[in-house]
Amino acid sequence: MQQRKVCLIGSFAVGKTSLLQRFVFSRFADKYLTTVGVKIDRKIVPTSRGSVSLILWDLAGEDEFQSLQTAYLRGSAGFVVVIDCTRNETMQQARAHLEFLDEEFPNAAKTIFVNKVDLENAWDLEQQELSSLEKLHPVHRTSAKTGANVEEAFHDLAEAMG
Amino acid sequence: MHDRPPSELPSSVTNRGHREEAPSSEPVDAVPLAPTENPEGSALLSARDARLRDALQPILQSSILNYFESGSQRIVDSLYPLIGRAVRRSVRESLQALAQSVDTTMRDALTLRRWRWRLEAKRRGIPLAQLILEKSLLFRVEEVFLIHSETGLLIAHAGARADDSRDLVSGMFTAIQDFVADSFGGGAGKASDPLGRFQAGDQDVWLLHGPHAYMAVVISGNAPSTYREDFHRVLEEIHERFGRELSAFEGDPEPLERVGLLLDDCLLERKKDVPTRSPWLFWVIAGVLGLILLGFFARMLWMRHEHGTVRSRLQEIPGVVIVEESHGWNHSTFQVLADPGSGNVRAALALGESPSRVEIKPYYSLEPEVMANRLRLALAQRDADPQDALTVSVQSDGLQVAGKARHRSLEEVKALATSLNLSQVDFSKVTNVDQQVHVAESVALAKQVVRFLPNQARVIVGDGEQWRVLAEGMRTLAANSQEAGMACSYRLMLTRPAEVTAGAWALAAERFRVAEAALMSQGRGDAEVRPGGWLPPSLRARLEFPDDLTDALVVIPSFLGSQNAP
């Protein structure tokens, strides 16, 4: 079976771990636990080329004290850059991440998960900037809490990784 | 460049003959090649070679440096197998030197196991210390992962683990290395020594790195570090055989499925040596046990035979009754009852060093022969008088003692028989020697006569001396009668006259008075003496007195008198 390494990156508390929990284990917890270092999960995803085993690296989120651990990115076939739709600054961070990834991993598939879409009332993203990102990379509006679009988003990534 | 076959190289380089046959325009080619043939030419050639070397050196150095800088990873990858072998050889030689040093230090150890290891080390041609390390460390390789270095994806796995978690563990191994490299190695992308080993609980994880993939070997226990070389060799072989697939790996492990077979060889295990008995030791022990068993059974048979022999002997001895008996492999025991008439049973058995033990308790047998023996032994053991000569025989109605014996001895024997529980013993055939003497002495005394003058109470001349003889005889007889166990008294008797008249009785009475007085005066002793009348004819005949003997007085002992009393 084909295997692909996928890294989830993004600012702290954007929901990377919750997305993986939803995708891999179909569950969600309101309790927030920050990820230390990296956590790895595995999920087999059917694609048009057959099943693909996604090795999902959930990297610790970035904040002012913790920068992206680029050592973990090596060898990734795909990247999921997660944005919290209630915090516009996470989109700024995502943009920086994507620029870095485009430069260092030009051949890897990249996708953007705009997470927490269940919190519509708290939407804080600038639409214009989001639209500009959408022109560069696929954007999926997801909710780890409700599970909305999570499966589809990962499936699209698996297809895109080829 | 090095792979180019010689055929593709310029002929001017490979074919010296051709170069000799086709001289170039350069003067150097005109110089003969053999220096010995032309010393001047040789010197010229050396001078030109030095100039050529000086001219090319900077160019070559620059080119090589440039080549290494531009493609260092490729060069490292290409040289990896060669470098690995060279490094391992160097390390191996260093370890051997260390092992030799330890070997020297431990040479004097004299334990049996050490000697056995020393022999094994000699047989295998390895230092003793290396063997000691191998024997001392116990371990098991639980799992082996072959993981793609770049992606951290699992390529192959050997060992027991669920499929689901293999990928995650592989990823974590890679993440750990990335973290270490990032934290201690100067950051990502910077050259650093990769993590070679870490411990997780009681398991040791060895990481062995190759150009495209690394091996993670999960080990329980303490594996000798020499095995690291073996794992490296496997990793090198994987890279040699699957180098192309590994370099092209993008997540599809199918082309590398056969790698798992190589990984399986890495699942080594060393268990604790179970002390096994060598066959010779087994046979020695079995032989010894067999001999012991054989000896045991032989001893049992011998004891049975010995027991039977002793039993037969006991049964042959009259008056011995076996009450209880037992025998084992080392003893034989009898409890017997033995009549005193059985004699010395132990002596009869002649047990000597025999392991048989005989416990003897006395009893009285009612078997006539045993009873006779009992009495015979008792007679033999007594302090007999020289005149005693007694025999014991078995009669239909009991025992009979015959022979002769002193009166005192006879009394003792009778008492002895009673004490031996022999109540019915016939002593009628025993002659009482003392009584015989007594009778003889009685007869001798009775034959002494004192003659009176006819019709007088006076003794004839010459017989007065007889009173002294009679008195002495009476004393002696009285004294001997006690030993013979007989009462002693005397009767004074007169030979009957031809005609007994009335005056004859008076004369007889007078004569008795004279005799008593005379005997008393001669000291006849204390025995009773009384007048006894006329001597009966039977007694007269027994004493063989002549018929014409009249007016004679005799002293008749009571024993003789009662025997012959009318």
Explained architecture:
- The complex is a heterodimer of chains A (162) and B (566).
- Chain A has a single domain (2-161), classed as P-loop containing nucleotide triphosphate hydrolases (Rossmann fold), CATH 3.40.50.
- Chain A has helices at 16-25, 88-104, 127-136, 150-161, and strands at 2-10, 38-47, 50-59, 78-84, 109-115, 139-141.
- Chain A starts with a strand and ends with a helix.
- Chain A has 162 residues and is of the alpha/beta class.
- Chain A contains four helices and six strands; from the N terminus they run βαβββαβαβα.
- Chain A is globular, with a radius of gyration of 14 Å.
- Chain A has a six-stranded mixed β-sheet with strand order 2-3-1-4-5-6.
- With 566 residues, chain B is an alpha+beta fold.
- Chain B folds into five domains: 6-70, no CATH class; 83-270, Beta-Lactamase (2-Layer Sandwich), CATH 3.30.450.70; 279-362, no CATH class; 368-434, Histidine-containing Protein, Chain: A (2-Layer Sandwich); 447-563, 2-Layer Sandwich (60s Ribosomal Protein L30, Chain: A), CATH 3.30.1330.
- In chain B, strands 1, 2, 3, 4, 5 and 6 form a six-stranded antiparallel β-sheet that branches. In chain B, strands 13-16-14-15 form a four-stranded mixed β-sheet.
- In chain B, helix 16 links the parallel strand 14 and strand 15 (528-534).
- Chain B is rod-shaped and about 200 Å long.
- The relative contact order of chain B is 0.05.
- Residues 1-37 of chain B have low confidence and may be disordered.
- Classes of the chains: A alpha/beta (162), B alpha+beta (566).
- Chains A and B meet through strand 1, strand 2 and strand 3 of A and helix 7 of B.
